[in-house]
Amino acid sequence: MSPATRAPHSGGPALELLVHGVGGATPQDMLGDPRTVRISGDEKAAVYRRTDDAEAEGSPGAHRDRPIPEAYCWSNLTSGNGARALWLLLLPFMVVNLAHWMRPRARGMRRTTRLYGALVRLVALSLTVLLTAAACEVALDLLAWQCAGSAECSGDRSWLGFMSAAQGGWWSQPGRRLALASVVPAALVALLWYLSNRTWSAYESQRPPVGDAADDQGEEEDAEDAEDGGRAASGEADCGAADDAAQPAPVVRPALGRPGFWYGRRLVARLRAAHTAAGFLTVAAGVAGAAARHDRAAQDVLLKTCGVLLEGALVVGGTAVLVVVCRRGRSERRIDAGLDRAAVRCLPGAALALLALSLLYASWSRPGWASSATLPGEVTFRVIVLAQGALVVALAVAARLLHRRARPPRTVLHGLGGPAVAMLACALGGVMTGGVAQRVADWIDGPGTPGMDGEGSIPGPPVLLSWQASVIPVLLVVLLIPAMLLVVRTWLVARRLAPQVEAEYFDGAPGEGRRDAVRTRRIAGTRARAALTDVAPLMVGVVSGATLLLGAGALGGSWLSGEVPGRSFGERGLAESAAETAQALGSWLVGFGFILFVTMGRRAYRDASARRTIGILWDVGTFWPRAAHPFAPPCYAERAVPDLTWRVCTWTARTGGRLVISGHSQGSVLAAAAVWQLPPATRRRVALLTYGSPLERLYGRWFPAYFGPKALLELSSEVDCWRNLWRRTDPIGGPMLIAGRQGRAGDGCEDPTDVDRGALKDPVVYGRSERHPLPEPVLGHSDYQADPVFAKERAALLDRLTPAVPRQAQGSSGRSSA
């Protein structure tokens, strides 16, 4: 008798826990009933049931032939109130955080693994410094130094009159103007610290229902020991156990199954302190550096000595920040609830004290000091860009060494996915900061052109920003070639697939009606476009490589010429005209990109539908914990995964029933992560049903250390049964491609080696029929539950599960679970 037709078990209720995907879903849509009731949770994430099923466990006869449906809705974690629209400004931080998790999984290379993590954290630190330096460029250099120091510029703006050098007031001295303007970048750093601290408390402070292990090693050591078959305790406990109870039997667990994977308070707090200190030190260096340079040329020995001591203290503070960032990675084998109090409390406080001393030092009266030209922001931005390029290259070398040892199949860019994404994060940071600086310079200079002799009233932003803007049109031209090739390739693939589509529907199926060329082309075209997901890594590699080379060219051009593009070619000619055109077009594109960001954020703040669209971006990008950048948007999985784990544990312990976790799209990733966190006894009573799942197609390729073939094989062998549904028209989901699984004796699975079902037909039928009188749509990534196969596979999974004895019936030795 097949699993689909076998009689259902009579003992214990059955529950289907539905987990939606990206973009969110309402409980009414998930449950197919307008009347729903919240079972557990809050306004951010909660479990819902139909009103009629609220007490379904007490009436098992009502669900004898079907499971109790239950929906876990988590969409408000990423697309809830309007304040989340501001997370768009944190996009570079989110992208660099992804690079941390793209490390290849290698064996026997502990030092290289540690180096990879440290390099990603340094790239993340450089982005914080870049953002703060851009704020300093706008507030300190363009406004307080250049515009307030120019009678023409400040005369047109009454709100700058009290700082104008022509007025001769108390604030007219350059040092005092800089001290006052430093409030803006310092407030920005304080805001980032506040958001990071607040979002941690609101989203990521949920402990999983497992115990702590005794050891305390970094993430790199954890991953390495797991590869080598080490014997670190997993800390798994029964669902109702206290958080601090440690299990005596050591068990090796996959990375996502470790107790502390979804709870990293120590690392986030330490990185938050280091990045906050780095921001304050950057502001202090911008203020104190200008005053110290003036004092070195003056005759006041006391001020000169104070300047030297203050600059030395800033160097010491910067060194301390680097040590804290590079010191250690994540600790995952236990719930990392401790704090490095010396770093968390002392480092930001010391940096803030140095900032206060810098403001006091710069505000000291210097009657003969006048602002001219620009602050040395040019050197600052060049150093930052050079450091970012060197770090990305070093990261690529480390990633390549790890990949050569591991060689996981289907890994994107041969292990260079992490460095490529880190390069994109640096590029995003450069575009955003450069766009802000150039737009502000154009605004305060009116009709003039900053940086052009005789045209503007101020010198303008650093020359490097103009060079970076000039390479953007070149980058777009470079990207146009592979984009056109992909268009042609998709068209050719669609033509090649057309006969296969007709053969699939008409061979052996005479009831499908007549062939329709338009219908065939539409289905084939949808399949061809869905396959573009598999070539997306190539585009990322092209963009990252071109960005690195063009960025190096922009850095070299600005360093050698010291002028905006086109001014260093001598007599005016074709090269000069082309360079000036590229610079003007690039500056316009940078400004347009910045305005687009602001517009999208403003629209998302007011419009719930736009906020939900932006929430899709966070659904994909903020699944991973903040391991590299503490100012990235919060990780919703650190709330969602414990929620699911607690629900599965408590329900199975209380009822002893059978449970299927049914996850669609990103919900399947959350479901898999929750299953990894379950204790072994609970895991054996749970089945997994995934559909439209990116577990292998996206996560397995981009994050091989956590969702690679070995990890998915382990997952399939640990759950009682797992079935995966997919379509060829789906651009997100795909097969798991798991081979070599050996079924457990008596586990009830008819075919334990096959997680994937054959590709579902999409559309279900080709033409009109008696059962489908109207044309069926091409569903792609949506509405998997509308396929009749879905109900059959769910019934088969529930039939394979064996209900357990409820914990309450186990006598005094059992512990009841809430």
Describe this structure in words.
Residues 231-246 have a biased composition (Low complexity). The chain crosses the membrane at residues 85-103, 115-135, 178-195, 273-290, 302-325, 346-364, 379-399, 411-432, 467-488, 535-561, 581-601. Residues 205-246 are annotated as: Disordered. Residues 213-227 have a biased composition (Acidic residues). InterPro entries: AB_hydrolase_fold. With 818 residues, the chain is mainly α. Among the domains are: 14-79 and 636-813, Rossmann fold (3-Layer(aba) Sandwich), CATH 3.40.50; 463-606, no CATH class. It is 54% helix and 5% strand. The chain is built from 25 helices and seven strands. It has helices at 27-31, 76-79, 91-100, 110-147, 151-155, 174-181, 183-204, 219-227, 265-296, 301-327, 341-362, 377-406, 417-444, 463-506, 517-530, 536-561, 574-606, 608-621, 637-655, 666-677, 680-683, 695-702, 704-707, 709-718, 788-800; strands at residues 14-19, 36-41, 46-50, 68-73, 658-664, 686-691, 721-725. A seven-stranded mixed sheet has the order 2-3-4-1-5-6-7, sandwiched between helices. A hairpin with a 4-residue loop joins β2 (36-41) and β3 (46-50). α13 (417-444) packs across α17. The longest helix has 44 residues, at 463-506. The radius of gyration is 30 Å and the shape is globular. It starts with 13 loop residues before the first strand and ends in an 18-residue tail after the last helix. The model is unreliable at 1-10, 211-219, 221-237, 240-251, 740-750 and 805-818 (pLDDT under 50).
